[in-house]
């Protein structure tokens, strides 16, 4: 047991450090986060404690209020932290790829399968829904990138459905915060072995990420494609 205790303590310390870091980052985009979380906890705890005094069981209801207060605070904190994170990422090239990388198990993401010098980019995700091409950038320019990539998919994997999504806040586009939900809503039409076979066939295509030193996740604003680099495919 003596060996497990230091490991458990280190894990707990790591979680607390992560929570503190998340709170610090969230508070920059959401200055009222502390007030909101404190209010949620106090209201829930206070209401249940008051009910406890009224019915003659302040200890039991106080403990319940304490637990429910912590639970509600954690839920509110998670949602506001997620909203703040999406707000900071939105509009940055590569933000969609960062979301796709964390979508869920069962999906394989290939960032930057097509890109132009204006930083319009198309990412590819493969799962039981088939192939989903996710574009971010100027809506008019990315349409040509999507069309070229869909044509390529139809040549390589003609028997697999191909969906396309343009990330943005305009008409017909999908907001970054709803990208994960949108992909998970596509009907599942492939089996596990079919997904594996599709990935194997697509892997032969390669991608810009394997040939260019592009950073993972959101790319710095103002970054330019090097001259002589690959053009949109």
UniProtKB/TrEMBL annotation:
Keywords: Membrane, Transmembrane, Transmembrane helix
Disordered: region residues: 210-233
Bilayer-spanning residue ranges: 33-53, 59-78
Feature: compositional bias, Low complexity: 219-233
Listed name of the protein: Membrane protein
Species this protein is from: Streptomyces naganishii JCM 4654
């Amino acid at each position: 047991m003596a060996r497990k205790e230091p490991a458990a303590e280190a894990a707990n310390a790591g979680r607390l450090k992560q929570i503190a870091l998340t709170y610090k980052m969230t508070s920059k985009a959401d200055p009222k986060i502390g007030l909101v979380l404190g209010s949620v906890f106090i209201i829930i705890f206070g209401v249940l404690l008051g009910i406890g005094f009224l019915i003659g069981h302040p200890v039991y209801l106080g403990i319940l209020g304490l637990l429910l207060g912590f639970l509600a605070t954690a839920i509110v904190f998670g949602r506001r932290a997620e909203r703040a994170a999406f707000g900071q990422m939105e509009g940055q090239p590569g933000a969609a790829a960062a979301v796709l990388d964390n979508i869920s198990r069962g999906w394989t993401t290939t960032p930057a399968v097509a890109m132009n010098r204006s930083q319009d980019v198309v990412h590819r995700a493969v799962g039981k829904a088939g192939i989903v091409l996710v574009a971010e950038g100027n809506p008019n320019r990315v349409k040509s990138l999507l069309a070229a990539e869909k044509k390529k998919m139809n040549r390589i994997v003609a028997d697999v459905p191909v969906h396309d999504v343009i990330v943005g806040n305009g008409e017909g586009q999908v907001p970054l915060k709803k990208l994960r939900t949108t992909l998970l809503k596509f009907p599942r039409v492939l089996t596990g072995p079919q997904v594996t076979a599709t990935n194997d066939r697509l892997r032969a295509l390669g991608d810009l990420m394997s040939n260019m030193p592009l950073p993972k996740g959101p790319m710095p604003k103002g970054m330019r494609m090097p001259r002589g680099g690959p053009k949109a495919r």
